[in-house]
Amino acid sequence: MASTSDIRKGLCIRYNHDIFKITEFLHVKPGKGPAFVRTKLKSVTTGKVIDNTFSAGHKIDDVRVETHKFQFLYQEGEFYHFMNVEDYTQIRLTESALDMPNLLKEGEVVTVLINTEDNAPLSVEMPASVVLEVTHTEPGLKGNTATNATKPATVETGAEVNVPLFINEGDKIKIETEKGTYKERMKE
C-alpha cells in the first residue's frame, strides 16, 4: 500500500476494480482546508481517461510493475505486435494500451510496463521524442514568416502535425511524443 505522497507520473494503481496509470498529477495545498492530489488516470484495459482527486494521506493500492524494452514490429487491425529485445518473445497489445499510436513507426524501441503478479502487459511508454519523415505538406508562402505561422504536415506514420512554414516534404522532424507537437527539424 502506498499513499498520495508516492503518486508520480507513470505509477500504476488499482482503483474501482481496474488498473489505472497516472498520466498527470498536481499536489494542491490550499490556504484553508486539507491538502489533496488532483490526478488524471488512464485505464490500462479500456484506455478511458478519468479525473480523480485524492485527499492527502489517502491510501492507494499500487501495482508492482517491471519495465522491459520492446521493439515495435507491425500493426494488424487494432492490434500492435512487439518483440522483447532481450529474449525475442512477442506480445500483442490493443491500441488503447498505447499513448500515441499514430507516432509509432516500425522498428521503434519502446518501454512496456508489465504487471509482476500475472506478467500481463499494462501499457506502452513511448520515447520522449521520435524522428519521422514528412511525407506530405503544402509549400510555405515566401515572406510569410513574420508570425509563428504553422501548416499541417503528414508524417510517415500517417499522423498529422502542425509544423513551421519552412518544413518541406522529405524533411525529417523531431516530434515530442507526449503532446504530439513539432520540436525541431533534423539535419541530415
UniProtKB/TrEMBL annotation:
It comes from the Bacteria. It is found in: Cytoplasm. Residues 130-185 form the Elongation factor P C-terminal domain. One of its GO terms (molecular function) is translation elongation factor activity. Pfam families: EFP (PF01132), EFP_N (PF08207), Elong-fact-P_C (PF09285). Pathway: Protein biosynthesis; polypeptide chain elongation. Residues 67-122 form the Translation elongation factor P/YeiP central domain. Signal peptide: none annotated. SMART domains: EFP, Elong-fact-P_C. CDD domains: S1_EF-P_repeat_1 (cd04470), S1_EF-P_repeat_2 (cd05794). Keywords: Cytoplasm, Elongation factor, Protein biosynthesis. HAMAP family: EF_P. NCBIfam families: efp (TIGR00038), PRK00529.1 (NF001810). Belongs to the elongation factor P family. Involved in peptide bond synthesis. Stimulates efficient translation and peptide-bond synthesis on native or reconstituted 70S ribosomes in vitro. Probably functions indirectly by altering the affinity of the ribosome for aminoacyl-tRNA, thus increasing their reactivity as acceptors for peptidyl transferase. This is Elongation factor P. The gene is efp.
